[in-house]
């Protein structure tokens, strides 16, 4: 099972178009928020569960100094708490404060409401099937990237070449 190069190229174009549209929607939704988009992204990932900063930097694809500035800003806002890692006294774990949990819930609710308003001409089935396809695409890309990093598949090289165009 393989995707034709022309189909992959068109999918890449569609994904780029989607990214641009989402960026516009996100920027519009972020207006008036004290936490900018980067901070909201960090908040979201910390909200997925207590984590080390090094693991978080890896997931976000940012350097430790950049993440450190974001975490310090979120701490100053009272949204994030650092605690010592019981498994490694030199490391710290990050988690949301109760205020951070409330802020994240508010942001998620606000984003969902904004997206629902943008998709007013969609029905529930359209939204659910699109969500399922996006999840499938994300899982396939993550698996291919992981396989490529471990050197276990040729198909992932082809995917990466298609993505890099």
Give a structural overview.
By secondary structure, the protein is mainly alpha-helical. The protein has seven helices and three strands; from the N terminus they run H-H-E-H-H-E-E-H-H-H. A hairpin with a 2-residue loop joins strand 2 (80-85) and strand 3. The protein is globular. The two termini are 21 Å apart.
Secondary-structure map:
Blueprint (H helix, E strand, L loop, with lengths): L4 H26 L6 H11 L3 E2 H8 L3 H13 L3 E6 L2 E9 L1 H21 L5 H27 L4 H10 L1
Antiparallel strand pairs: 1-3, 2-3
* Helix-strand category: mainly alpha
What general outline do the C-alpha atoms trace? Answer: globular
Overall pLDDT level:
85
Q: What is the chain-wise order of helices and strands?
A: HHEHHEEHHH
Give the strand order, joined by hyphens, for the main sheet: 1-3-2
Give the beta-strand count: 3
In a nutshell, what does this entry contain?
This protein is mainly alpha-helical. The radius of gyration is 19 Å and the shape is globular.
Describe the structure using short key phrases.
165 residues, mainly alpha, 3 strands, three-stranded antiparallel sheet, globular, single chain, 7 helices
